[in-house]
Design goal:
The complex is a heterodimer. Chain A is built from 22 helices and 35 strands. By secondary structure, chain A is an alpha/beta fold. Classes of the chains: A alpha/beta, B alpha/beta.
Chain lengths: 883, 441
């Protein structure tokens, strides 16, 4: 993934923005002119309470083919719990001219100024002041709206009517701008830059007069840019799609955003996201700045005045300032937002360090401090469309990136994996070029030297008129989005020629499948799955389920087939078999017939299959509460299928649940297995955030990656992760929890870890630092832990790292120390790694093999223990004396 | 691992009992040979306020010879007094006055609870105080039909006998948080911050985290325990809502309380907490805290509670949600007069922490960590030392609190009668009844 070193390629970034590669001629003149402009306009007083921001839920996509708005609908609906209906919005880049009754030529060669009419009756006045006298209007389009807004039950306020104007600055207007501002054409690189500044200034004047002045909020500009449009309402984002009839409107880049403002009363959508203050840019944000005032002042010193008083607005203004006025390349722009620090800074090439230090020193007051995740859509006309996701340095907000490349490619950044999967499901249902599972899902590492915590997805028009998706990281390094394997589905064959073992358990069948798969085409592979289905009907449902679980969970070579599409089919087959137990129950499986159906279990071994889809994600009637109810009815084994962001699964079962086992499939929500006191949980796929919070006993196994804050405050039990953990895993754990991470963690692993001495039964974490190649073989990562904070401020427990080449350095520790592995350590590690092998098929022998040679454990694993804190040594000495 | 402490001998107990129960605190009475010790108290918790609390805890009455109403801090509650009404507008001394407080105003189907007095006991964890202190408070809360909070240190099994009067606290370190105690609680309290030390979190020294404490917190003995300042899983209001949803999944009937300190935007924090589902917004001002909170933090970071209450009260009124939420104030609430003033400023009720300890004999000597020995409080309050904790017996502690609450309740009723109000609810937000005391210290 991080194959691209910093600074290798930057040309991809500059497709949009400064294609001519020139440094702006005279940014000071532009800034000075802006100061004059704001001084000449009425001063806008900020109401302190208006500045507060809340949380949010976000999804963004970029696609090689135009995507219709309806595909975001389900996704946004499933993410309602990240908003509160007080602000929703969408952004579109790469529009279809026909849908706006215009031509491609107009779209590409003019600015689209979209104006929201919050209060009726100001259109003529606005047009006569800020449209007709200053622009040549090439085309005008009133957005269609739903006839009766009250038919959308979540809406409390009627959304504004919206008019789109495709405009070009008039020559006389430009001349007047130079006249009044003191700028001259020589201050700009080219005509386009002049035009953009002209549009920017006009919008600011309009917004001051009709929106900000005296708090009148009659009309404001939603967005101003090439080939891009923002729409927003007081409500949920999916209602934007409904209200403005966007079901069939298409674009190459979409952003959907739910806002959760802290305040209750919101009367107009001025504060909703996306923010379109920057030319060609739509910016949404999840999080909160703690230095809003500082950023506001920083902008004020540069002639920019916020009018909407949310932290997102200042982010949009800052982005525009650095991008368009200062002309920073995208890499430096991202650095000015999310500064690189600590170890990551040291890891940068010296030349880059110099530049970054200068950027940080100059712009730190304009750098948003606190938790944030930006998703930015950028247009430029001329067939260049872009989606950017940037996470803050500490990765304090949830973020998932993903892509799928079949005949066409699509890429995402979002708050949760489940909202990406919801879009893919909607697309796959309509268009056979898509399937439901993305090729890759990952998290960015904020402010890092590896990926810079940011990814850019460019969709560029090719000579033949088609589009190509290109992905780059912060440094401009090209990231490969071309996984191997055939993705063109064909019909099932008559036979598949698998040599099914005569006798043999699920493992034997799984191995036979994998062997046969190596030479199969799609037709045979599909037949193989249907033979497993037949086996489930005729011989053993549980053996078939187990075999398919292994096919779903394990990493193995998938022959000629694209892995993600193959797994999509495997999961489908598995779900189908489990679903069939609804109409045809057996001694091993019973399916819930309807939501709330609670049959009596025949035996303690019998499992109940629960379809998650009809249940709310949280609340009184949620899936989690239903599972508690089934547990109270005597059920001990659960298969929870088709999760769509369902939260709190396995919570609330109470104490001593040793006889419970839960298997979870689909896109699970947050807090899986929180409070576990004995049960066994298997997540067959990636997990989300806050898994295993206050985990006390039992076993939690995730066959994939996990999100943020894994195992927060865990007290005990065994935890296994096949892949990676995002930020802040095992923070504040105490007692005896034992975690194996086979990949790595982004940062802040086991901060304030307070477990007991592992040699006395206390808790610890094992990091194996391995990854899989496409053949399913394991390799050591470049470093087992890339972050700058490992085991910080810990007072107990230990970390064991598979680090045969001593890649980790003391500078990554903050209160910990390296020490040698002893046989006593290995005696506690070995059984856990044996269990790890049973869960994931990661052979203990393979872990002990380094560069083809089997080594002794102490040559492979290093141990990190907490450094005694000086301030506490007096007390510790006293305690030791009284032991 | 830890040494078994011998139980104190009956002789020692007798001696200390005399010292504790009849000796030192006897100085609160006017007719003894002793004056108040010179070093007792400070401007906020004056010697007279401390001695008054002892007097109330012994007698159930307010002392005539001591100022039990205000301190000498020169600010806040100490510079406020109630206006005197003409006698004909006051209620007669025998008039019934309602001082009960309904805590669930959201009108949802969750637990309803009316407590008999408009205050309850704040969180002091097992580990920071002993089981005897916790049980003294819980038994008294049961008697007074009010509540007390566990703090962040787990739920000692003995508490279950008072479970209906015990608030389970979930705080940033998640120490001792398990589903059983969440499911047993009528109210679950999320502690985001303490007014005494916002931004700092908690720290239990290794020596105080002995075997019993460790067991309760799910930790191992004699490992230093930190509560971080933030919930690392909660960096935004939608995370907070998710957090409350988690508790609602585990216990669908519990009320939710959100305890926050008082930053400059406390009004926003409070409103956000309400919209996320809180029944009680608990504001903890900057003047609370025992000797375990760092001196540099106390009084110096959070906003005084006297400023925070009206700020939140007014903002909630403008938002139109004031009557759907209960605002509880703490952080420097020492007396019945303080409680009445806090309510007049806009709170619904108060939380007492330090006052409970003072009633049980605390001298405010700030030696809560117990010096180099680390054994804890010399009066057996903030300690889990096997010997020291014997000095506070449960029945004795509960009895002192019972008498103390009697005196507080009577004084509060007296204030209400003098203001011509027949219920404490009528006092809420009546800043017009308050007067600033000009001049003086």
């Amino acid at each position: 993934m991080h194959a691209n070193k910093p600074g290798t390629q930057t040309q991809y970034h500059e497709v949009i923005g400064r294609p001519r590669g020139d440094v702006p001629k005279n940014p000071e003149a532009v800034v000075k002119a802006r100061k004059m402009l704001t001084d000449s306009l009425p001063k806008i007083e900020m109401n302190e309470a208006d500045a507060a921001e809340g949380g949010c839920g976000v999804v963004g996509l970029a696609s090689e083919i135009p995507i219709a708005g309806r595909h975001l609908f389900r996704s946004l609906e499933q993410m309602r719990n990240r908003g509160n209906g007080k602000g929703g919005g969408v952004a579109m880049v790469g529009l279809d001219p026909a849908q706006f009754a215009t031509t491609q030529d107009v779209l590409e060669n003019s600015y689209l100024v979209a104006i929201a009419w919050v209060n009726d009756g100001f259109r003529d006045e606005v047009e006569s002041k800020y449209i007709h006298p200053v622009f040549d209007v090439l085309h005008t389009f009133d957005m269609p709206v739903l006839e009766d807004w009250t038919s959308l039950p979540a809406l409390e306020v009627c959304p504004p009517a919206v008019t789109c104007y495709w405009v070009q600055p008039t020559e006389s207007g430009i001349a007047a701008m130079f006249e009044e501002s003191g700028m001259n054409p020589g201050d700009f690189t080219d005509e386009e830059a002049i035009h953009s500044e002209y549009v920017y200034r006009n919008t600011h004047k309009l917004n001051v007069e009709f929106y900000a002045q005296d708090g009148r909020a009659d009309a404001f500009v939603l967005s101003h840019g090439r080939d891009m449009l923002i729409l927003k309402i007081v409500g949920y984002a999916e209602d934007v799609i409904k209200y403005y009839c966007l079901d069939d409107f298409t674009s190459h880049v979409w952003i959907g955003h739910h806002r959760y403002p802290t305040r209750g009363r919101v009367t107009h959508p001025g504060g909703a996201h996306p923010f379109g203050q920057g030319i060609d840019v739509a910016l949404v944000h999840n999080g909160d700045f703690s230095n809003y005032v500082s950023v506001k002042d920083y902008l004020g010193q540069r002639g920019m005045e916020p009018l909407f008083f949310t932290d997102t607005e200042v982010a949009a203004l800052g982005f525009d300032l650095h991008h368009r006025v200062y002309g920073y390349p995208m890499e430096y722009l991202i650095e000015s937002l999310a500064p690189t620090s600590e170890l990551d800074f040291v890891m940068l090439p010296e030349e880059k360090q110099k530049i970054y230090e200068a950027i940080q020193k100059t712009h730190i007051h304009g750098s948003p401090d606190g938790p944030w995740f930006f998703i930015i859509a950028q247009g430029a006309g001329k067939g260049h469309h872009r989606l950017i996701g940037i996470t803050d340095t500490s990765m304090l907000r949830p973020q998932v990136f993903a892509y799928q490349r079949g005949e066409v490619a699509i890429a995402f950044c979002a708050s949760e994996k489940q909202v990406i999967d919801a879009v893919m499901e909607s697309l796959a249902a309509e268009d056979s070029r898509f399937w439901r599972r993305c090729d890759r899902y990952w998290n960015a590492r904020g402010g890092s030297y590896t990926d810079g915590g940011a990814f850019l997805f460019d969709v560029n028009k090719q000579e033949d008129g088609s589009f190509e998706l290109v992905m780059t990281d912060k440094f401009g390094g090209l990231v490969d989005t071309h996984p191997s394997g055939d993705f063109s589905i064909m019909d099932a064959a008559m036979t598949c020629d698998v040599n099914w073992p005569e006798e043999g358990d699920a493992v034997g069948r799984f191995e036979a499948c994998v062997e046969a798969l190596q030479t199969m085409d799609w037709a045979a592979a599909k037949t193989m799955l249907s033979e497993i289905h037949t086996y489930s009907q005729q011989v053993s449902r549980s053996e078939a389920v187990h075999c398919l679980q292994l096919l779903l969970d394990r990493c193995y070579a998938t022959g000629n087939l694209r892995r993600s599409r193959w797994l999509d089919h495997v999961e489908d087959a598995l779900v189908e078999i489990l679903m069939s137990s609804g109409s045809a129950p057996c001694s091993q499986f019973v399916g819930q017939k309807v939501p709330g159906h609670r049959p009596e279990p025949e035996s303690v071994e019998q499992a109940i299959v629960v379809d998650a889809r009809p249940y709310p994600i949280e609340g009184q009637d949620s899936l989690a509460r239903e599972l508690i109810g089934l547990h109270q009815c005597g059920w001990r084994n659960f298969h929870v299928i088709l999760c769509q962001g369902h939260r709190f699964i396995g919570n609330g079962f109470g104490m001593d649940t040793d006889d419970v086992r839960i298997d979870v499939y689909g896109s699970v929500g947050d807090y899986l297995g929180s409070g576990n006191d004995g049960m066994t949980i298997h997540m067959h796929g990636n997990g989300q955030d806050q898994i295993g919070q206050i985990h006390k006993r039992g076993t939690t196994v995730v066959h994939g990656d996990v999100g943020q804050c894994y195992g927060y405050g865990a007290k005990g039990g065994k935890l296994f992760i096949r892949g990676n953990a995002a930020g802040r895993p095992m923070i504040n754990s105490v007692g005896t929890p034992k975690l194996v991470v086979n990949g790595t963690a982004l940062d802040y692993l086991a901060e304030s870890f307070m477990a007991g001495d592992p040699l006395e039964g206390g808790g610890f974490v094992i990091i194996n630092g391995i990854e899989y190649d496409e053949k399913g073989e394991i390799h050591a990562m470049e470093t087992p832990y890339p972050g700058g904070n490992l085991f910080s401020l810990s007072s107990g427990g230990a970390i064991y790292v598979r680090d045969p080449h001593s890649r980790l350095s003391a500078s990554q520790l903050n209160g910990g120390d390296f020490t040698d592995l002893t046989p006593a350590d290995w005696a506690i590690l070995e059984p856990l790694l044996v269990e790890n092998e049973a869960h994931f098929g990661i052979a203990l022998a393979a872990l002990l093999t380094v560069d083809g040679e089997v080594k002794a454990p102490e040559e492979v694993y290093r141990k990190i223990i907490p450094l005694k804190n000086k301030a506490l040594s007096v007390e510790d000495a006293w305690a030791a004396k009284h032991d | 691992m830890a040494k078994e402490w011998p139980k104190p001998s009956p002789k020692l107990l007798e001696k200390t009992h005399h010292l504790m129960h009849d000796g030192f605190h006897q100085r609160a009475f006017p007719d003894t040979a002793y004056d108040l010790p010179e070093a007792l108290g400070d401007a906020r918790w004056t010697d007279e306020l401390i001695a008054s609390a002892w007097y109330m805890a012994e007698t159930g009455e307010c002392p005539d010879h001591l100022n039990y109403k205000t301190g000498r801090s020169g600010g806040g509650f100490d510079k406020l007094e109630f206006k005197e009404l003409p006698a004909d507008q006051q209620l007669p001394a025998d008039a019934e006055v309602d001082i009960t407080l309904e805590l669930n105003r959201r009108g949802d189907d969750r637990h309803k609870r009316t407590i008999d007095v408009p205050w309850y006991g704040g969180g002091m964890s097992y580990g920071s105080v002993s089981v005897n202190v916790m049980m003294s408070r819980a038994l008294n809360a049961k008697k007074w039909n009010t509540l007390m909070s566990t703090g962040e240190g787990g739920y000692p099994p003995q508490l279950y006998e008072c479970a209906d009067h015990v608030i389970t606290q979930v705080a940033t370190g998640y120490f001792g948080v398990e589903e059983k105690s969440i499911q047993a609680a009528p109210i679950v309290e999320f502690k985001y911050a303490q007014g005494a030390k916002p931004g700092l979190g908690g720290h239990l020294l290794a020596t105080k985290a002995g075997e019993e404490v460790a067991k309760m917190r799910g930790s191992v003995p004699f490992v230093s325990l930190f509560s971080p300042f933030p919930f690392h899983s909660t960096y935004s209001v939608e995370d907070h809502m998710k957090h409350l949803d988690w508790i609602k999944t585990v216990n669908p009937t519990a009320m939710m309380s959100v305890k926050v300190s008082t930053p400059h935007d406390v009004d926003m924090v409070a409103v956000g907490s309400y919209y996320a589902g809180a029944h009680i917004v608990h504001l903890d001002g900057g003047f609370g805290g025992t000797g375990a909170a760092p001196e540099i933090a106390k009084k110096n970071i959070a906003m005084p509670i006297e400023l925070a209450i009206p700020k939140v009260h007014k903002f909630m009124q403008t938002e139109g949600i004031r009557d759907n939420v209960t605002i509880i104030a703490s952080g420097g609430v020492r007396t019945a007069d303080d409680i009445a003033k806090a309510i007049a400023l806009g709170a619904d009720g108060c939380v007492l922490g330090t006052s409970d300890l003072v009633a049980m004999g605390c001298t405010r000597c700030s030696n809560c960590e117990g010096g180099p020995s680390g054994r804890g409080c010399p009066w057996g309050l903030t300690t889990t030392d096997a010997e020291l904790q014997e000095w506070v017996q449960q029945a004795w502690g509960a009895d002192r609190l019972d008498k103390y609450y009697t005196a507080l309740a009577n004084r509060l009723k007296q204030i209400l009668r003098e203001l011509g109000l027949s219920s404490v609810g009528e006092l809420r937000g009546r800043t017009d009844l308050l007067r600033y005391i000009a001049g003086g210290e």
